Amino acid sequence: xxxxxxxxxxxxxxxxxxxxxxxxxxxxxxxxxxxxxxxxxxxxxxxxxxxxxxxxxxxxxxxxxxxxxxxxxxxxxxxxxxxxxxxxxxxxxxxxxxxxxxxxxxxxxxxxxxxxxxxxxxxxxxxxxxxxxxxxxxxxxxxxxxxxxxxxxxxxxxxxxxxxxxxxxxxxxxxxxxxxxxxxxxxxxxxxxxxxxxxxxxxxxxxxxxxxxxxx
Length: 216
Ligand code: TYD
Hints:
By secondary structure, this protein is of the alpha/beta class. 54% of the residues lie in helices and 13% in strands. It contains 8 helices and 5 strands; from the N terminus they run E-H-E-H-H-E-H-H-E-H-H-E-H. A 5-stranded parallel beta sheet has the order 2-3-1-4-5, with helices on both faces. The model is unreliable at 210-216 (pLDDT under 50). Thymidine-5'-diphosphate binds next to helix 1 and helix 4. Thymidine-5'-diphosphate (TYD) binds next to helix 1 and helix 4.
């Protein structure tokens, strides 16, 4: 495998999407091959599953079914998009991955993390990100951002503040459990400062890319 797999994680409204775009643009400016993708989704099938997962009408969706749907979308995404891109030497920038399931379905919904790891094993096909960046952000500010965005609030975003607080603490617990796998970045700061820290973290793994690096 020649590419690099970089994942951005964080609570809803933490600024992941903005930061992932800034990171992608910077890497592309350097002539690096970049693929930008997201979960749940990133494929035709995954986008269908995403519609079910985020539709506020499906109030009856039980936590275990929710966990399997996220894992199903992930299985399709890994097989159809991520692994082929990595094989070609692409830097894959992904908005959420397995740790979203551990934080939201695990710490948020209360499903055992070990069970989630088991059901996600075939979904990820053993793929582990080269770098997982967690944007740590105040949950109240995250909810304010979403409420002010003017768009429809999805099924997960409608959860109570306590749920989002558990998710935030879940991310920090995961990072505490395996510090080598994560970079926790304080996202309650100006966009440029957060971006600089993300760049530094990304450069740490990208500099090791032996092929496809055509930086001037
Ligand atoms: P999305 O609109 O992509 O949220 P964001 O812009 O904040 O990334 O919606 C994804 C939602 O799904 C988000 O609330 C997090 C949740 N989610 C899980 O609960 N488990 C998962 O495994 C994944 C990938 C996402």
